[in-house]
Design brief:
- The chain is built from 15 helices and no strands.
- The chain has 256 residues and is mainly alpha-helical.
- The protein is globular and about 45 Å long.
- α8 (124-141) runs parallel beside α13.
- The protein has helices at 2-11, 35-48, 53-63, 71-78, 91-94, 97-102, 106-117, 124-141, 146-157, 165-168, 182-190, 195-204, 209-224, 229-238, 241-254.
């Protein structure tokens, strides 16, 4: 999970200043956590406690109101009785990585991933994006090789994972949909040699950089192992104390 949060923080400064290169400082002075981290921690909190994802997302979203949420989600947060709004946006995929670390069967991962999405992102593409991301984390964590991960995700969800980062990068642009960003984030992992290389791949696509790197980062951490102490310490410095405490608790319980 901490790999997803680190990806969000690293990609935060490129969200609206896209780059098409893997050569950039991993952490810049302006790096910050965004809604991706806040809601990832919310999902982790629900897993650690009562399993009520909707309540946790409402709670953490309202506690951190300036994290950079999209307009529809802001409306959901401010409603007296928030309802799903049929979104296919990648907000469903950015927050789901804890599910892939915490649950032990494919059926459980797919069920819980849908539950983390459907109270806001109840469009089939939103739910699919969350399930594909969580399953990729699970398969990476359970020692599956990359060819198996690629084949399983492509077969289940119909994503084109036969491309490479170099093929995608020249024409790719900002895309907040699950269908236009989740496959690319998974490819950024599949086409990598290390956690850091995966994050650099994701950011270098020049799209929704914080979310791409958040999705990629969770999968890469599951596959390559815990992030470096340097990255872990940097995340601890940038997150507010409440978010960091929950992150540490989740990582301790699920060995992420």
């Amino acid at each position: 999970m901490i790999g997803a949060i680190a990806g969000d923080i690293i990609g935060s400064v490129y969200e609206f200043r896209q780059i098409k290169s893997k050569k950039f400082p991993l952490f810049k002075a302006a790096c910050h956590f965004t809604d991706d981290s806040v809601l990832t921690v919310a999902v982790a909190k629900a897993i650690l406690t009562d399993g009520d994802y909707r309540k946790a997302v409402l709670d953490f979203g309202r506690r951190c109101p300036d994290a950079g949420y999209g307009g529809s989600f802001i409306g959901w947060l401010s409603s007296d009785d928030p309802k799903p709004y049929n979104s296919w946006g990648n907000g469903a995929a950015m927050r789901v990585s804890p599910v892939g670390f915490a649950f032990e069967t494919i059926d459980d991962v797919l069920r819980e991933a849908a539950l983390t999405a459907e109270f806001t992102h109840n469009h089939p593409e939103g739910i699919k994006g969350a399930q594909a991301t969580a399953l990729a984390v699970f398969l990476a964590r359970t020692a599956e090789d990359k060819d198996t991960i690629r084949a399983e995700i492509a077969a289940r969800f119909g994503y084109d994972l036969g491309r490479t980062v170099d093929m995608i990068r020249p024409s790719y642009s900002f895309d907040e949909s699950c269908q236009g960003s989740v496959p690319e984030a998974i490819i950024a992992f599949l086409d990598s040699t290390s956690y850091e290389d995966a994050i650099r791949n994701a950011v270098s696509l020049g799209g929704d950089s914080d979310t791409l790197a958040c999705i990629t980062g969770g999968i890469a951490e599951a596959f390559y192992g815990s992030v470096s102490l340097e990255i872990r310490h940097k995340v601890g410095e940038i997150l507010i104390p409440d978010l960091w405490r929950i992150t540490e608790s989740f990582c301790a319980k699920y060995a992420t």
